[in-house]
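Q: My labmate handed me this sequence with no annotations at all. I'd like to see what the chain might look like in three dimensions before we decide whether it's worth expressing. Could you predict it?
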Amino acid sequence: MAWRDNLLELKKDLDTALARTMGEPVEEDPETEREREELYQLAASLHIAQMLVDLNEVVLGGAGKVESTSLMDYYDDDDEVLEIADEDADDIDEDEGTLEEGVEIRFSLVWDDVTECAVDVELGKTNGRICMLVNGEEVRQQREVLETAVLDAFRDEMDLE
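A: Here is what I predict for the chain of 161 residues:
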C-alpha cells in the first residue's frame, strides 16, 4: 500500500508542477500564502521593484527589463537556492550551504542579452527567518543597505570597480 501512496503523492507533485508551468493558479496552504504576503509587504516597504526600475531608467536609459518571480518550495538539489551567511542558522544544509525549503520572491533587473547581466534581489523565508540577498550576498533588510548592495552588484556586473 505504501507504494501506491507514493505514486499518488508523485502524481500530485507532477500535477502541481505542470500547473505552474502552464501558468494556472496552484492551491497553496494558508501558511505559504501568509509567508508570501509577508515577503511582498517587505518588498513594498523597501520599494525594491521601483529601485530597479529607477536604476534601469537612469543608468541604462531603459535598455533593461525588470522582472518579478515568486517561487514556492525551493528547487531540487541541482538548482541553486538562497545562500545565507549565518553559519549558526538551524535551516542551513551543511553540505550545500543553502536554505532547504521555503518561499522566495525574486526581483531582477536584466540587461545586455549577450552577457546576460542582472541584478537580483531575493527575499526568502524558511523556518520563520526572512533573509534578503542581492546577487547571492545576504544583506540587512534596510533601505540604505539595500541601495548600496544594488549599486555594488551593478558595478560588479559591469566590471566598474
